[in-house]
Amino acid sequence: MAGVDPAALVEAINEAQAERLASRAALDNVPALVEVDVAEIYAAIDSIGDVSAALRGSAQRGWKSYTKRLTCKSGTSKTPTKLMSPSTPWG
User: Fold this and answer.
1) What is the pLDDT of residues 38-82, one digit of tens each?
2) Half-sphere exposure at residue 34, Cβ-oriented, CA atoms within 13 angstroms
């Protein structure tokens, strides 16, 4: 006669209860929602400033700095024969 193995049921029930307890603990530890006013969001954005202008300015200053550090080496002729650059653009 076919029947259900009680040990298999106990094991499945124990696993389900353990998963339920773990899920409950995770739900209990979810941080509370923080309400932020629209004005606070705009103030945070304004405090960052104009990021794109700052990045453009930084890139332009870096390129100018790099091109100033390029040196021309010449042999006996008056025309440069080799353009030497530093090992890294900004290092």
Assistant:
1) 999 898 888 888 777 777 776 666 666 656 655 555 455 555 545
2) 4
In order of 15, 47, 89, the CA distances from 58 in angstroms are 58, 19, 13
Classify the phi-psi angles of 77: left when phi > 0, otherwise alpha if psi is within -120 to 50, otherwise beta: beta
Q: How far is CA 60 from CA 6, 38, 57, 65, in A?
A: 76, 35, 5, 9
* pLDDT number for residue 48: 83
Closest CA to 68 of 82, 80, 86: 86
- Spatial neighbors of 81 by CB under 8 A, at least 6 apart, are 73, 74, 75
Cβ atoms of 51 and 38 within 8 Å: the answer is no
Mean pLDDT taken over the chain: 75
Q: How far apart are CA 43 and CA 41, in angstroms?
A: 5
Give the bridge partners for 72, in sequence order. Answer: 83
